[in-house]
Amino acid sequence: MKKLILLLIAPFLVMSCGRIRSESEAIEHNERGIEASNMGDSEGALQAFKEALAVGNLSKKTKATVLRNIAQTYFEMLESDSAMHYYQLAADCYDEGTFDYLVNVADIKLHQDETPEAIKMLHQAADMKPDEIQVNNTLGLIYLGEFGEEYYDAKKALIYNLKAYNTNKDRITGDVLARNYIELEKYKKAIDLYYELINNYPEMADLRYQLGTAEYYDGNTAEANRQFDETLRLDSSYSMQIQQFKLINSAALEAIQMEDKES
Predict the structure, then answer these.
(1) How many CB atoms lie within 10 A of CB 124?
(2) Is the distance from CB of 93 to CB of 64 less than 8 angstroms?
(3) Which domains does the chain have, with CATH numbers?
(4) Nearest Cα to 48, choosing from 65, 75, 70?
(5) pLDDT tops 70 at residue 262
(6) How many Cβ atoms are within 10 Å of 7's Cβ, its own excluded?
(7) Is the pLDDT at 41 greater than 60, yes or no?
(8) Burial 139-176 (b: 16+ CB within 10 A, else e)
(9) How far apart are CA 82 and CA 130, in angstroms?
(10) According to the model, what pLDDT value does residue 82 have?
(11) Is 80 exceeded by the pLDDT of residue 261?
(12) Is the pLDDT of residue 19 over 60?
């Protein structure tokens, strides 16, 4: 599930005319990359972010933001070496010990399976800027067990995932928050959030699939099956995943029913 957030570029303030043109062009490419990522097009997102970087004459903050977005996209594409390379380039734009330095180096630590050190750095960063989306998104994923089951704590994860979603209200943070609700058996909250996300991204098969699982867990099997059918209409490759989900959960339900009869 590891879904890391992509960053918008902050509007420029006082700059030369040449720098303003460069920043404006980079912002346009960066926003196109985020839109492509939200639609599940990682290749298109990567191309747009690299076009933003190629503009040149960018502020340190803008360059670092684009580098981090490239790293996050490689992370989503499971290209770990490339992700770590761009995280390091992003970190190098900042002084050691600053918020952005800590966040980027923490992501490198996660790729190197040095999760305890990453958690330490992320909490240092959170103490500096507790409402910044990137630190909350990553901590939320860590405490959902995405970087090791030993760090799983769904209640703690909810604190960070709520902050991340309330800051950005995008597809990625919404999806992570909804899955967090499912982990906590808050199925109706998950269902409501998935319907909201699907309204904005109606062609995203994974959102339909996750909505189907939430409906199933909430006891709405007919609606769950409808959502699974819609998932398959959008992407037939989910067929095996849906079959496995039903098989595992029907077996679990039968076991519970058997225990109830015996008791």
Answers:
(1) 15
(2) yes
(3) 185-263 (1.25.40.10)
(4) 70
(5) no
(6) 17
(7) yes
(8) bbbbbbbbbeeebeebeebbebbbbbbebbebbbbbbb
(9) 28
(10) 93
(11) no
(12) no
